[in-house]
Amino acid sequence: MIELLFVACLSADPTACERRSLVYTDITPETCVLGAQPELAKWVAAHPSFAIRRWQCRAVRSGEHDI
Fold first, then answer.
1. Taking residues 45-51, what's their average pLDDT?
2. What does the alpha-carbon distance between residue 35 and residue 51 come to, in Å, rounded to a whole number?
3. Cβ atoms within 10 Å, residue 59
4. Average pLDDT for the chain
């Protein structure tokens, strides 16, 4: 699995940030990097009060899922 991990901060309060992620089961890390910006743009369009601060694509290791 590949995870697009990103930090989203409230536009009105840039110090109020949250870690978010989108998990994919059928893509490579390279595909994630190439497709990240359009996916993040869709996420921001659905969450207009947030801005993306940083992002990365990475492999999800077993046992690393949040509860």
1. 97
2. 18
3. 11
4. 92
**CA 65/CA 61 separation, integer angstroms:** 8
12-34 pLDDT, tens digit each: 999 999 999 999 999 999 999 99
Q: Which long-range contacts (CB under 8 A, 24 or more apart) does 15-20 make?
A: 17/53
For residue 22, give the nearest of 37, 44, 39, 41 by alpha carbon: 39
Please tell me the total number of residues recorded for the chain in this structure. Answer: 67
Between the CA of residue 28 and those of 11, 20, 24, 42, what are the distances in Å? 31, 19, 9, 20
What are the structure tokens assigned to 15, written together? 């110090």
